[in-house]
Each structure stands twice: as structure tokens, then as C-alpha cells.
């Protein structure tokens, strides 16, 4: 019985990392899709308000607005 409980707990410990990896992968795919499709509005769903482009292009505002302006300029 202890073996089953330990196995179950170990199995659960791997779920968040795997889920986070899939989430990160999905975000990266959508990031490149936004640039490929030239749809800056897609970035609004991907970037947090606190997101920073480091280094950002000169004269661009911080956050998602700067990323959108950069995409439009490309």
C-alpha cells in the first residue's frame, strides 16, 4: 500500500512540469504565428502587461504595445 501511495505522489509531481512545458511551447508557437501572419493583436493574448522586450528597439514603449509596434514596423 505504501508503494502505491509513493508511486501516486511521484506521478503527480511530474504533471505540473510537463503541463508548464506544453504551455510554454504553445505560447512560443503562437508568438511566431503572430509574426508569420502579421497579426499584432495576437500578442495581446500572449504577453502580460509587465512584459519587457530586452533589448527593445529604440523609441518603442514598454510592454505589449512596444511589441505590437515592432511587429507592425517589420
Automatic annotation (TrEMBL):
Compositionally skewed regions (Pro residues) per UniProt: 55-64
Record carries keyword Transcription: no
N-terminal signal peptide: 1-19
Keyword entries, A-Z: Signal
Region called Disordered, residue ranges: 55-74
Identification of the protein by name: Nuclear transport factor 2 family protein
Amino acid at each position: 500500500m505504501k508503494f502505491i501511495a509513493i508511486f501516486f505522489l511521484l506521478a503527480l509531481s511530474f504533471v505540473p512540469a510537463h503541463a508548464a512545458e506544453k504551455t510554454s511551447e504553445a505560447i512560443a508557437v503562437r508568438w511566431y504565428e503572430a509574426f508569420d501572419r502579421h497579426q499584432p493583436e495576437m500578442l495581446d493574448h500572449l504577453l502580460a502587461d509587465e512584459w519587457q522586450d530586452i533589448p527593445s528597439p529604440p523609441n518603442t514603449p514598454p510592454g505589449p504595445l512596444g511589441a505590437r509596434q515592432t511587429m507592425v514596423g517589420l
